[in-house]
Design brief:
138 residues; 3-stranded antiparallel beta sheet; Jelly Rolls; 25% helix; 8 strands; 38% strand
């Protein structure tokens, strides 16, 4: 069995940002040489997410609106966590959107359903953060 590990680093220019990282994961898959197995893609920060959905700008806007309804950024004083930092909302958004995805690898490709793409969601950005890619298989 083969094992592959790589960290992908992202710098976001905005506090909240969604990126389609599917091509980055496909590059890792080809580097790994794994033809049959699994890939884990894991956000390594507690205010970021990895999730699967359609890569469509309108949907990204819908996420922003929906997440702000569920866990609004402001007023900062509404959260007991906020004090030294102002990112309690980002922790909650991460909980909602998830920490990681696992995707099957079949015949050397990510085995997706129609329109599925892997996304990195940043909820407390403007700083460098990483995603772990772990691939196992043969």
């Amino acid at each position: 069995m083969k094992s592959y590990r790589k960290e992908l680093w992202f710098d976001t220019k905005q506090r909240r940002e969604i990126r389609d990282i599917t091509s980055d994961i496909e590059t890792c898959l080809h580097e790994s040489g794994v033809r049959e197995g699994l890939v884990l893609v894991n956000a390594m920060h507690i205010t970021a997410s990895v999730f699967i959905n359609d890569a469509e700008r309108g949907l990204y806007g819908d996420y922003e609106k929906w997440l702000e309804t569920l866990a609004p950024e402001k007023p900062y004083s509404q959260y007991a966590h906020n004090g030294a930092e102002d990112n309690a909302d980002a922790h909650l958004k991460r909980t909602i959107m998830g920490r990681e995805v696992v995707v099957a690898i079949s015949d050397g490709e990510l085995d997706f359903g129609p329109w599925e793409r892997i996304h990195y969601g940043e909820w407390d950005g403007k700083r460098r953060k990483r995603v772990l890619v772990k691939i196992i298989g043969e």
